[in-house]
């Protein structure tokens, strides 16, 4: 739902400038819109998240986490509960994180950066060999970006396995600590792998036309690949499971539907979905001011994915176990950090736009930079002001919480009065 408004506005914006024959010049208005909408979207999600947790009875829930099932350690005594349980020295985990995991992640980042350099070299070679003025030449010039998008998807998948192995090896005691460390590993690499080339084109080459083409190629190609994987793989898994189930039914006609469901694949959880939405959020709100149709493609992708996810959950995977939670946890912080970064990138893109250069044509470079630094700080201030002014809880929920607090105090008061009368 959060993509409908930017998709409609972006489509209207693109068509309007296309009809005016200025599709590659004016993007300041859409950048400003992105800054406002990203803030409103994140604050609106906080309110929605509070409503959902309240309706599910998990708002304000505090729980004592038990050690993970895969946690390995020596037998010791918990200083809080006094129970005998497995313990693991913190210094060993820190040694693994900073002396092994960090160098491996750094090596993966260097490999991703080297691949990006190779992509730019290949693109420059293609520009020298192909006539970009012809239709065929323009299509051929998209090939490097499309191939690079495929490589990004492959690298992300391989690194995800590496990060999971490292995280398992670090032996985190609590599930929250395990997830937070895995999120950090994945977000850092995926951000560099997916967005570094866009930053290079935008702020080093300062080529808005190339940025627009590269962003479109990355976004569309990655979404097509992911949809193929999410459609074909579940279908193949479903067909394989159906064949096995039919064979077992022929051998044992007394099999129940519960036994058939036990043969389904185990659901991996929503971790990959959160990561996919994080990257999509970055494509839409970091650089889409130069490509307004980014939100349109993202919306179409999500509409299709609703059906593919429903197919997977209903026919391929076992029914997942529910987990009590108070929100999306660390993912909320990553989205908010991306929103702040979106303010910086979109302000910089506006500063490099034709409109800004025309308005400040008589200003010196220092004055020009200072003006937009001030504008960027003002926009961040407005973002913080909106976050402060928009309450995280809807009014009806505040009233319900106050009512519950009042009723609990009244019940406690009556209980004490009864105890006093008995004594």
Structure, explained:
It is a single chain. This protein has 423 residues and is an all-alpha fold. The protein contains 14 helices and 2 strands; from the N terminus they run H-H-E-E-H-H-H-H-H-H-H-H-H-H-H-H. The protein has a two-stranded antiparallel sheet with strand order 1-2. Helix 3 (90-129) runs parallel beside helix 6 and helix 6 (175-205) runs parallel beside helix 11 (330-351). The radius of gyration is 26 Å and the shape is globular.
- Average residue pLDDT: 85
Order of helices and strands: HHEEHHHHHHHHHHHH
Secondary structure category? mainly alpha
Radius of gyration: 26 Å
Query: What proportion of the residues is helical, as a percent range?
Result: over 70%
Q: Please, how many helices? A: 14
Query: What portion of residues belong to β-strands?
Result: under 5%
Report the strand count. Answer: 2
Distance from N terminus to C terminus (CA atoms, Å) equals 59 Å
**Poorly predicted residue ranges:** none
How would you sum up the major sheet?
A: 2 strands, antiparallel
The shape, in one word, is globular
Sheet with most strands: strand arrangement: 1-2
Summarize the structure.
The chain is mainly α and 423 residues long. The protein has helices spanning 4-19, 28-55, 90-129, 135-141, 143-170, 175-205, 208-251, 257-262, 271-285, 294-316, 330-351, 354-359, 365-389, 395-422; strands spanning 74-77, 84-87.
């Amino acid at each position: 739902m959060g993509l409908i408004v930017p998709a409609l506005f972006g489509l209207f914006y693109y068509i309007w400038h296309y009809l005016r024959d200025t599709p590659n010049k004016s993007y300041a208005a859409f950048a400003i819109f992105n800054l406002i909408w990203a803030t409103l979207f994140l604050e609106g999600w906080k309110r929605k998240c509070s409503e959902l947790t309240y309706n599910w009875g998990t708002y304000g829930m505090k729980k004592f986490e038990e050690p993970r099932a895969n946690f390995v350690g020596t037998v010791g005594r918990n200083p809080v509960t006094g129970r005998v349980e497995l313990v693991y020295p913190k210094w060993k985990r820190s040694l693994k994180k900073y002396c092994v995991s960090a160098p491996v992640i750094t090596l993966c980042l260097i490999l991703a950066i080297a691949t990006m350099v190779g992509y730019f070299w290949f693109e420059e070679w293609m520009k020298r060999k192909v006539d970009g003025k012809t239709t065929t030449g323009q299509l051929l010039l998209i090939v490097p970006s499309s191939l690079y998008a495929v490589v990004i998807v492959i690298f992300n998948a391989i690194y995800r396995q590496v990060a999971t192995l490292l995280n398992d090896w670090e032996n985190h005691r609590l599930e929250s600590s395990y997830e937070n460390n895995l999120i950090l590993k994945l977000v850092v690499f995926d951000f560099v792998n997916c967005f570094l080339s866009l930053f290079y084109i935008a702020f080093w080459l300062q080529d808005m036309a190339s940025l627009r083409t590269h962003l479109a190629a990355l976004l569309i190609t990655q979404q097509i690949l992911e949809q193929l994987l999410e459609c074909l793989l579940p279908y193949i898994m479903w067909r394989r499971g159906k064949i096995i189930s039919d064979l077992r039914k022929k051998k044992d006609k007394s099999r129940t539907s519960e036994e058939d469901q036990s043969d389904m694949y185990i659901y991996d959880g929503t971790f990959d979905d959160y990561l996919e939405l994080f990257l999509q959020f970055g494509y839409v709100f970091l650089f889409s001011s130069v490509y307004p149709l980014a939100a349109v493609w993202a919306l179409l992708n999500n509409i299709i994915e609703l059906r593919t996810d429903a197919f997977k959950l209903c026919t391929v995977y076992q029914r997942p176990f529910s987990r009590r939670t108070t929100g999306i946890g660390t993912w909320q912080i990553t989205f908010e950090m991306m929103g702040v970064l979106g303010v910086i990138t979109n302000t910089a893109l506006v500063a490099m736009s034709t409109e800004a250069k025309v308005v400040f044509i008589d200003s010196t470079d220092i004055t020009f930079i200072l003006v937009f630094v001030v504008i960027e700080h003002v926009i961040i201030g407005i973002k913080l002001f909106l976050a402060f002014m928009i309450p995280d809880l809807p009014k009806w929920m505040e009233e319900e919480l106050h009512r519950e607090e009042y009723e609990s105090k009244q019940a406690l008061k009556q209980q004490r009065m009864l105890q006093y009368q008995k004594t």
